[in-house]
Write a structure and sequence with these properties.
The chain is of the alpha/beta class. The protein contains 13 helices and 8 strands.
Length: 295
């Protein structure tokens, strides 16, 4: 069976646009795969949210464990948010090793201060010096090359939010010149910067679709991003947001009225069957029938 890292490399070589919903559990991962997406992402935002803390408080163990559960549940490649590498270059090398051992196909590493601060979610930029960022990417790539050369390293910078596209592109270009990182990621503040970024960066770029952001970052379609020259898109909130809203509405109605009317009984019958099909329950029935049932 082909390694997930090799499958990801083949997708990139074939210039397949990677439209990656950010998931946080195996059921969401299965739905992503069944919907036809070529890859999935385990973002820090969704892991932190699903654990009812926040991304900056995540440990490397927590993030790797969530990503591993997702990766083991599906056949498409899974990439993950490795934050600021969970430390200095030596720690970042350990982080790369842990994600590779967990079956993840690639990670992004950013130029944020570590430990990250909760104010990150208020769009505060706590960027480390460029030289330190480049060194961290260099050693991440070194660990990758030693353990699995197909593992994908994405260099991410957050400084565009405060200092603009020129500074962000310079950081990614310096990383491209000094390392063998595979992809880049930055945060354009408007359409003009989003359109210019793929032309000004030496690394192929992935866009982060931050639905519900409060700093005015633009939302695009997949087709828009392909036309601009991006090679992929992380849908950071498209799974956790609708799920949270639907659960919140259902529980509020149940608590206030004593029942739930958001779905008919027939719809519930269907969705229960859909869940059972998604977790492949019929396969378990078949094995039990062959071994322990009806004997």
């Amino acid at each position: 069976m082909m390694k997930s890292t090799t499958r990801l490399r083949e997708l990139l070589k074939a210039k397949t646009f990677l439209h990656m919903p950010s998931v946080y559990d195996p059921l969401g991962a299965r739905l992503t795969e069944l919907a036809g997406f070529e890859a999935a992402y385990v973002g820090g935002y969704v892991t932190g949210g699903s654990l009812a803390i926040t991304e900056p408080l995540l440990s490397v163990t927590e993030q790797v464990e969530v990503a591993e559960r997702v990766a083991r549940s599906i056949d498409i490649p899974v990439l993950a948010d490795a934050g600021a590498g969970f430390g200095e270059p030596l720690h970042t090398m350990r982080t790369v090793k842990e994600f590779i051992n967990a079956g993840i196909a690639g990670i992004h590493i950013e130029d944020q201060l570590y430990p990250k601060r909760a104010h990150y979610h208020k769009y505060q930029v706590h960027g480390i010096p460029t030289d330190e960022f480049v060194t961290k990417i260099k050693y991440a790539c070194r660990a990758r090359d030693e353990l699995d050369p197909d593992f994908v390293i994405i260099a991410r910078t957050d400084v565009c939010r405060e200092f603009g596209l020129a500074e962000a592109a310079d950081r990614l270009n310096r990383a491209a010149d000094a390392t063998n990182a595979d992809l880049g990621l930055l945060f354009p503040r408007n359409r003009d910067e989003a359109e210019r970024a793929p032309r000004e960066c030496k690394l192929p770029l992935v866009y982060v679709m931050s639905r519900g952001n409060r700093d005015g970052r633009p939302i695009f379609t997949r087709q828009d991003l392909e036309q601009m020259g991006y090679v992929g898109c992380i849908e950071a909130q498209v799974v956790i947001g609708p799920a949270f809203a639907a659960i919140k509405r259902a529980l509020a109605e149940l608590r206030s009225t004593g029942t739930y009317t958001g779905m008919t009984e027939g719809e519930f019958v269907k969705v229960r069957k859909d869940i059972e099909d998604t977790i492949r329950l019929e396969e378990y029935y078949a094995i039990e029938e062959e071994t322990v049932e009806n004997h």
